[in-house]
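Recall from the previous chapter that SMILES is a line notation for molecules. Here it describes pyridoxal-5'-phosphate.
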Amino acid sequence: MADPLLRRIPPVHQLLTEPPLKLCEAQLGHALVREQTRRYLEKLRYQLRTTGKHDMALDAGTLACQIAAWIQEQGAPRLRPVINATGILLHTGLGRAPLAQEAIEAMVEVAGGYSSLEIDLESGERSQRVLAVQSLLCELTGAEAATVVNNNAAATVVTLAALAAGREVIVSRGELIEIGGSFRLPDVMAQSGALLHEVGTTNKTRLEDYVQAIGPQTAALLKVHTSNYRIVGFTEEVALRELARVAQQHQLPLIHDIGSGALVDWEPFGLRGEPVAARSLADGADLVLFSGDKLLGGPQCGIIVGRQGLVSRIQKHPLSRALRIDKLTLAALHATLRLYQRPDTLAQRLPLLKLVTTPPDVLRERATRLAEQLKNASTVRHAEPVADVSYLGGGSVPGQAIATWCVAIEPRTVSVDQLAKQLRTGQPAVVGRITRQRLLLDLRSVFPDQDQSIVTRFQELNESEP
Ligand SMILES: *Cc1c(COP(=O)(O)O)cnc(C)c1O
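With both inputs in hand, we obtain:
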């Protein structure tokens, strides 16, 4: 009975010539629209076969309209809020550091109007766009000068381009890291036009290795903080201070890429071994490069601090213009840096620091309460609080675990993977981690006011389940 009905469905190629789908194609591309149209027809055929509806309009025009609306509704992937229950605080895939309220307000303030971005309001003359943050960065790191570009990878490229294009930069083999998303630092650096002169071996590089490599072609020495991994065991690396001595003897600039960018020592907050920008400069680095959205807890950007002469050369390089930050980033960075002027209130104001310093007992209490609430959800077979460890992520303090508490969930009706997917695709999305056939929701990276949203999300799952 359904068969003649099915035969009335126009073929994909015909539907694609209809105006609504043509319009869709212009926005989303041919391949996606063709594929989605095919999927829609599949669903339609299934529906017709199972329900046998006879009164459905199946002409090409009407169908194309419906399909176009469905494709739009499904939408191209868009940015959605996520509750980060992975326990990775600087998750690159989830946007790294959450911004402080002060930074958000500063962005809102400049977003809708004009601002004193490149004009000095006192004199009415042009001033540089980073002027506002430069003095703060100098104050906080003890540097002579500072500049800011789009991210730390950009900071590396523009620094090497300005100081070493066509010449050599000496770097240890043990420090040539991949920074995630399969981007390798050596490839990024090569884009600057500088030639990497690798010295030493993966696990051992000595001072003599650097000294022997220095020649007339050498433009700079580079040290990279191997932030996302550690080589342990039979290893040797040259301390920054020793390297600084050699650089000075040969009148070469020493560049230190510290990656994670701590502006203050995180040791009192329980994280050892993160290089602090001010200390690198004090130990003799001429330039220090770091990210704005890792430990600093600000917006995505790459910060360069150090000697005036070198920073000026970088600022004058054409790439600085191509890689400059926008007014929103500038506003957010400025507001974030100002929080560092009050170290006593930093842990309350900077969300990242607030999350890191939450006492495990507080997380245990929240996990216990949440587990009790989630137990009642019909998709949950069992929920209990469990102690575990979180990580900073984002290429900071590898292997350094932070004590945490999670809610461990065993689903009743679906598999763990299915439950994880349901939570991931909901609104707001909840992303956890799967360990031994249980879904762990790690509260170290969840803000306390999000606990209730997690409960609500589980209740919504119930309603959609039989
Ligand atoms: C993270 C990192 C980078 C890249 O920084 P982005 O801000 O993501 O561009 C470069 N170098 C090191 C050592 C890093 O840890």
